[in-house]
Amino acid sequence: MADELVKIITDYVIDEYLEEDDDIEVKPDTPLISSGIVDSFSMVSLKRFLEKKYKISIPDDKATPQAFDTVNKIVALVREYTR
Amino acid sequence: MAYGQFKDFLNSELSGIRDAGLHKEERYIHSPQAADISVEFPSGAATADVINFCANNYLGLSSHPKVLEAAHHGLTERGYGMSSVRFICGTQDIHRELEIKMSHFLGMEDTILFGSCLDANAAVFEVLLDSQDAIIADKLVHASIVDGMRLSKAQQYIFKHMNMSHLEQKLQEAQECRFRMITTDGVFSMDGDIAPLDEICDLAEKYDAMVMVDDSHATGFVGKTGRGTHEMKGVMGRVDVITTTLGKALGGASGGCISAHREMVALLRQRARPYLFSNAVPPVIVSAANAVLDLISESTERRDKLEWNTMYFREQMGKAGLDIRPGTHSIVPVMLYNAKLASEFARDMYYEGIYVVGFFYPVVPAGQARIRVQISADHEKEHLDKAVAAFAKIGAKHGIIGLGKKEIIEKFGM
């Protein structure tokens, strides 16, 4: 389940935020927002994707750049709100 | 005392900015804005005559005699300030004249003036859209559009920069929303990229969406007669909202506007907070702007000269071995990638008599530092040749001539 989540979220990040010629490897602990791969302006689409895909609601005050900064952190957030 | 601790916090932030090499310093200009200016830098130094290559003075109208004459006339005939917001007692006949003239110039039904295009962008989404609606924005839209979107409660969809497949995907995702509005810069201010408005309008029609364009870096000189990006891309009449500024090509003082369908403008006049709660554009600026629109409607001479200047400069810079972003717009980014390099390069250019500024994070993404050269119709060929020679000389000094992105980053880091 965790592996599947990591893959789904990683694939989404790559499709949604990276350009075809971007030479960036996205690993589970790769900083996404603090590195600039995902800017805070674009973060809204990730929140919407997670909420729709997993039928959860993430409060705005929890949807912070820190909480979304790595795939592993995002997985933890999804698991917290699917309990 | 509360401020003591806060003061320490602020000083810590400022030190952080300086340590990162991101501190912006202002230089003092002792002359009107033009191609040739007199600058005091550093503070206290004797003034130096330099050529300005970083103003949005695209048509060279910032200090044009006819613009100054119209401004003087406006001061005499209509006074200095309105001391009022528009709806109370801040609207003169010349405000209405300018809104009508701008509407005709852009090919739109009506126009509403604001203190700046930043204010216009802050107003437009909040009034026209709410939480049932979608704003679908290019990733690199101007900061004022980002702020305007945040003020609105509309749902935000972001598409990769000028990527039409990704835009189409976002339009499909947003079909469940009540109304959809695509928003883009007409010309992107840091790159000089020109939005594919024709393709955007096609997609908008296919997916039942409106189109909003911030044309601040286009109004007055992009397109055969300078109407803007919509003219260049053959979509006049297909764009729903245009925001633009009087503070760049159209005189360079201040002021902005939204030009749109009649009903949109009517509602904005009733509800736009920057319009309701901020002073009317001063008569002097309105008078000058009216004269500017007359000037550029009568003749395309200035935009034609700008076009030639731009083409010539881009060609020469390419031959000189600088890494410039490809394009046709008068914004010509000289890519340096490293913030410190961009800063030092700009300083060295100043001592060669060329005034340019380094741009780095957060103004552009980290690792994408550049010098953004802006060409003007006020530049003569000698100005352009001097700039190219200076870029070549300083480029050689820093060892970047003929190098591309990969090599420059390898040498200097990001």
CATH homologous superfamily title of the largest domain in chain B: Type I PLP-dependent aspartate aminotransferase-like (Major domain)
Tally of helical segments of chain A: 3
Low-confidence stretches of chain B: none
Q: Strand percentage of chain A, roughly? A: under 5%
Written description of the protein model:
With 83 residues, chain A is an all-alpha fold. Chain A has one domain (2-81): Orthogonal Bundle (Non-ribosomal Peptide Synthetase Peptidyl Carrier Protein, Chain A), CATH 1.10.1200. Chain A contains 3 helices and no strands. Chain A has helices at 2-17, 43-54, 71-81. Chain B folds into 2 domains: 27-56 and 301-412, Aspartate Aminotransferase, domain 1; 65-298, 3-Layer(aba) Sandwich (Aspartate Aminotransferase, domain 2), CATH 3.40.640.10. Helix content of chain B is 44%, strand content 16%. Chain B is α/β, with parallel strands linked by helices. Chains A and B meet through helix 2 of A and strand 6 of B.
Main attributes of the structure:
heterodimer; A: about 80 residues; mainly alpha; Non-ribosomal Peptide Synthetase Peptidyl Carrier Protein, Chain A; 3 helices; about 45% helix; about 0% strand; B: about 425 residues; alpha/beta; Aspartate Aminotransferase, domain 1; Aspartate Aminotransferase, domain 2; 2 domains; four-stranded mixed β-sheet; 16 helices
Write the layout of secondary structure elements.
The complex is a heterodimer of chains A (83) and B (414).
Chain A: H1 2-17, H2 43-54, H3 71-81
Chain B: H1 2-19, E1 28-29, E2 36-40, E3 48-52, H2 65-78, H3 86-90, H4 93-106, E4 110-114, H5 117-128, E5 134-138, H6 143-151, E6 155-159, H7 164-173, E7 180-185, H8 197-206, E8 210-214, H9 229-232, E9 241-245, E10 256-260, H10 262-271, H11 273-276, H12 283-298, H13 301-319, E11 331-337, H14 339-351, E12 354-355, E13 358-359, E14 369-374, H15 381-397, H16 405-412
Parallel strand pairs in B: 3-12, 5-6, 5-7, 7-8, 8-9
Antiparallel strand pairs in B: 1-2, 2-3, 4-10, 9-10, 11-14, 13-14
Helix pairs in contact in B: 2-12, 4-12, 5-6, 5-10, 7-8, 13-15
